[in-house]
Design goal:
By secondary structure, the chain is an all-alpha fold. 76% of the residues lie in helices and 0% in strands.
Length: 128
């Protein structure tokens, strides 16, 4: 015969199992992100700091237009494109291509994290 303690224990086990699954899913996403971020970057003629390169590229007058074009026209057809191939395909410098892909990647990551946070909020309401 099951008692109230057995029922509560089963409920706690289920909640713990779901938490573990969610943590594993989160860790899998982080591992995938870390794997994708590893890229050998070497630009000839650039001897300065990387942050200076990034800041300089972001100040290019048509940077946002390029970023929008790549997001709308290039990435839907080839979402796993490297910065080298993007540079060749669009005719922009490799550094510009890398920074644009980096910014688009971070934008996508922020959206995914917001979605996960929204799902967490929904889950919290269900358990209360």
């Amino acid at each position: 015969m099951t008692t109230l303690y057995d029922y509560i224990g089963d409920k706690d086990k289920k909640v713990e199992e779901e938490r573990i699954k969610e943590e594993q899913s989160y860790n899998a996403v982080l591992t995938k992100i870390q794997r994708q971020k590893r890229s050998n970057v070497n630009f000839t003629g650039f001897e300065g700091r990387l942050s200076d390169l990034i800041d300089g590229i972001r100040t290019i007058p048509n940077y946002n237009n390029l970023k929008g074009y790549i997001r709308e026209k290039v990435l839907p057809d080839n979402p796993e494109i490297s910065y080298e191939k993007l540079s060749l395909q669009t005719g922009i410098h490799e550094g510009v291509a890398l920074v644009i892909l980096y910014d688009l990647y971070n934008d996508k990551l922020e959206e995914e994290l917001k979605d996960l946070d929204a799902e967490d909020i929904d889950l919290d309401f269900r358990y209360e």
